[in-house]
Amino acid sequence: MYPARFDYHSPSTLDEALEALERYGDEGKVLAGGQSLIPLMKTRFAAPRALVDINRIDGLAELREQDGYLEIGALVRHKACERSELLEGRYGVLGDAAPQISDPIVRNLGTVAGSLAHADPQGDWGSALLALRAEVTAQGPDGTRTIPVDELFRGPFTTSLAPTEIITSIRVPDPGPRAAGTYLKLERRIGDFATVAVAVHVSFDNGTVGRAGIALTGVGPRNLRADAAEQALAGATLDDAAIEEAARLAAEAAEPRDDIRGSADYKRNVVRIFTERGLRTAARAAA
Amino acid sequence: MLETPVPTEQAATRPLTVTVNGEARSGDVEARLLLVHFLRQTLGLTGTHVGCDTTHCGACTVLLDGTPVKSCTVFAVQAEGREITTVEGLAGGPELDPVQEGFHEEHGLQCGFCTPGMMLASKALLAENPDPSEEEIRWALSGNICRCTGYQNIVKAVQYAAGKLAAEGRQ
User: Fold this and answer.
1) Range A122-131 average pLDDT
2) Which of B126, B106, B104, B118 is CA-nearest to residue B146?
3) Smallest Cα–Cα separation from A133: which of A189, A173, A93?
4) Minimum distance, in Å, between the CA of residue A94 and any CA atom of chain B
C-alpha cells in the first residue's frame, strides 16, 4: 500500500469533524474530494496521522445565491460548478474556470473549497475567486470566521487556515446587475496545470468600470492579484487604450519563472494577451 | 487541545461493505487501501487496470454510484455502502453492453489496457447524454488516455453504442 498508515474518521456532523481534527492538531487533514491530497499521500509527500472525511456530512454541498452572496459549500464539486447555470453571466469567471480544471473524471470528485485549502500556486479557483473578491467561511474550535481569499494564500501550499479549521463554504459577493468575466487558461494538454491563466472580472457602473478583478495563475508563488491593473480600470471606460494599459500592468504584476512549460518572458506575454482578451470578452458580454 | 492519540502500530482494519456490480461484497481493509487495490486484490476483479497511478490516465476508472471516478485516487473506505460498477459488471451474461459491442465492432482498442476505463467513462456519458456530438464524446473521454489508437475508433465505438441504444429505445 502506498500511503503511510493513518486513522480514518468519517463523521456525520461538522461538530464531530471539528472534534476529530482538534484531537490530532497539525497532524490531521480534511478529506473532501481527495484529488490533490490522495496523490500527495500516495507519493508520501504528505503522511497525515489522521484523515477526517467530510463527505458524509449533510448540508455542505449547497451551491446557491442567498443574501447578496453566491454560496459554494465545502462539498461542491468542480463538476457541479461546470453544470450550474448560476455560474454563467455575472459569475462567468467561475463558470469558465470550472471545465478547465484537471479532467472530467477528476472534476467529479474534486471540490472548490478543497482546491483553496490545498493552495497550489497553479490552482485555478484561487485566481477566479480573487477576481470576484470572494471570502471563505472557516469553522474551528473557537467558532466561525471569515477570511478574504486575498488573506488565505500565504505561499505555495500554505494558507492562513489553522489545521483545526474546516472551510465550510465560500462566499462570493454579488457582482451587481451588469457584470461579466472569463477565465483564460493555457495548458499543454487537458489535465495539466496552467502554463499561465488569467481570471478577469468586470462590474460595470453606468457604462464605465465600477470594479475590475484580475488575478493570475501559474506566474508566482501563489495566485496573484494584479492590483495596479485593477486600479487603472476603476472608473474607466473600457476602450482600447484602457484595456491595453491594464494588460500591460497585469503583465508587470506577474512573477513568472522559466520552467518546462515556458520561459518567463513568454509567460509574461501570455498574461498580457490573456488580460486583454479577457477584458474584451467582458466588455462584449456586458454590452 | 485534546490528547493526541498514540500512533497505530498494528495495521488496524475495519469492515467494509460495498455493492460491486450489483452484489454485496465485504472485506476487512486498512484505511489506506486504495479502491483499485480493493477491487483487484481483495475481490480479484482485475479488469480494472492500474495505469499511471498518478490520477492522470483514467485506466482505473470505475463508476461510483454511477459517476466515473479514478479508483487509484479514492480510498476503499470512502466507498462504504455505495455502489461500484467495474468492467466486469458491464455485460449481462453472454450479452455485451452496447458500449462493449461498440468497442468490438469499431475496433476501439489496440492493446486494450485503457479500454475498461474508456468503456466506463463512455457508459456514464451515454447515461447522461444519449446522443453526444463527436466533440462531447472527446471532451467526456479527455480524462482517459489511450496511447495506441489516436482515439478515432474510440469515438466511433461510442457513436456505435449511442446508435444501438437509440435503436433499442425505438423498439
Assistant:
1) 97
2) B118
3) A173
4) 19
B146 CB neighbours in chain A (<8 A) are none
Pair type for strands A166-173 and A69-73: antiparallel
Closest CA to A171 of A62, A36, A57: A62
Stretch (H or E) spanning A77? none
Q: What is the 3-state secondary structure (H, E, C) of A59-72?
A: CCCCEEEECCEEEE
pLDDT at A76 over 50: yes
> Alpha-carbon distance A263 to B140, whole Å?
32
Please, what sign has the CA dihedral across residues B35, B41, B47, B53?
positive
Collapsing DSSP to helix, strand or coil, B55 comes out as coil
3-state percent breakdown (helix, strand, coil) of chain B, nearest 5:
40, 20, 45
Cell numbers placing B68: 466515473
Q: Of A175, A165, A189, give the one whose Cα is nearest residue A128.
A: A175
Sequence letter at residue A192: D
Residue count of chain B = 171
pTM for this prediction = 0.95
Q: What mean pLDDT is reported for chain A?
A: 96
CB B71 within 8 A of CB B63: no
Q: Phi, psi at residue A71, to the nearest 5°?
A: -110, 130
- Strand pairing of A224-225 and A208-217? antiparallel
Contact flag A108-B31 (C-beta cutoff 8 Å): no
DSSP labels, A93-107 = HHHHHGGGSS-HHHH
Which residues of B lie inside 8 Å of A (Cβ-Cβ)?
A: 1-5, 7-8, 11-12, 14, 30-34, 37, 53-56, 58, 61, 67-70, 72-75, 77-78, 80, 121, 139-140, 142-144
- Supply B153's cell numbers: 475508433
Please check the confidence at residue B3 and state whether its pLDDT lies above 60.
no
CA–CA separation, A102 and A78 (whole Å): 9
Tell whether the torsion through CA atoms of A35, A40, A43 and A46 is positive or negative. Answer: negative
By CA distance, what is B143's nearest residue in A? Answer: A103
| Min Cα separation A157/chain B (Å) | 19
Q: Spell A171-186 as b/e; 16+ CB within 10 A means b.
A: bbeebeebbbbbbbbb
Cell numbers found for residue B52: 499511471
Share of residues in chain B with pLDDT > 70 (%): 94
